[in-house]
Design a protein that fits this description.
There is one protein chain. By secondary structure, the protein is of the alpha/beta class. About 20% of the residues lie in helices and about 10% in strands. It contains 2 helices and 3 strands, in the order βαβαβ. Strands 1-2-3 form a 3-stranded parallel sheet, covered by helices on one side. The longest helix is centred in the last third of the chain and has 13 residues.
Length: about 120
């Protein structure tokens, strides 16, 4: 079983020729006459609880693995010893030198790195 697909949740008039400034984003509609707020079918889909994925697939990456944030070598070694299939994400404040060292250790442990060197 995979993650559910859902339609694009866009604001009204997105894609209209004369509305170049309407960006692809979602903001809940607040207007008293808004057709989107009252969930008219022709106005498109709105986010709701029914689009939520099951807990087994929530927060999973497209390849099906889950992310594990790593700050240091000890955390990385714990992941390798646990033997779980995880994708490693290095913390943002790691230096380039430390990233290279951790990348090498992850390669030895056959872990996939999302934001490596």
């Amino acid at each position: 079983m995979d993650k559910k697909n859902h339609p694009k949740f866009v604001v009204p008039n997105y894609g209209a020729k004369k509305r170049k400034r309407v960006q692809y984003r979602w903001r809940a509609q607040r207007g008293i006459d808004s057709k989107k707020r009252v969930k008219k079918k022709e106005s498109g889909a709105s986010p709701s609880i029914g689009y939520k994925n099951s807990s087994a697939f929530r927060y999973a990456r497209p390849d099906g693995t889950f992310e594990a944030l790593v700050h240091n070598e000890a955390e990385l070694r714990n992941l390798i010893s646990a033997g779980e299939k995880r994708t490693v994400v290095f913390a943002h404040d790691l230096s380039a030198r430390k990233r290279a060292v951790l990348q090498k250790i992850a390669a030895e442990g056959k872990l996939n790195v999302a934001n490596g060197v």
